[in-house]
User: What shape does this take?
Amino acid sequence: MLRAVMLGLLAFGAAGCASWRSADAPMYTQTDASRCTLHADTLLVLLPGVYSHPDEFVREGFVQAVHDARLAVDLVRVDAHLNYYERKTFVARLNQDVIGPAQARGYRAIWIAGISLGGLGGLIYAKEHPSDVAGLVALAPYLGEAAIWPWLDGYADAAPGHPPLYLGYGKADRFATSNGLLAAKLPPSRVFTADGGHDWAPWLRLWKAMLPTLPLPRCPT
Assistant: This one.
């Protein structure tokens, strides 16, 4: 499946900017601990877009929005850039460097939230390791060519092995058409749209709207 996805990414013109970055092992990660509990049992994994660095989740307000929503979760921002997908090591590295260690540390639930390429990455990982993922948030996900659609079709039938998926995208996003096709397979309560295109401003609006609806633990009142 990754080969077909990569062909689609190259056609979409995403490769040049990010492919020079080294696909190191382990992946670079940065953790943002919950501000309301010392021992969060839920981890939210953030996967960036093709041109983005994980620090942008801080700069653009995504981490602060989680704190403002008073979610009792830890965050880990992952530098899962395009080169991991090009080298077909993304799933293995995410499993060995992020998910597996988180499970060993005692997290009982792991959610993956990704933007654009990161949204696709979360879906790919959940397809390969569905029991690892308690839920998914995909913001304006690039959905490749035909490779992942047979699995996505399972959401229309509530098929087993499909973690709960929450989808958000801008109405003017360049992926709005394919995202709309995916939206039609999901419960309306799990689909969010906003004005704007493929950029941080609509993504942050969507993120803030989605966070209160996610079945994640809340801080004590």
User: Anything to note?
Assistant: The chain has a mean pLDDT of 92. The domain at 2-213 is CATH 3.40.50.1820 (Rossmann fold). The CA atoms of residues 139 and 173 lie 11 Å apart.
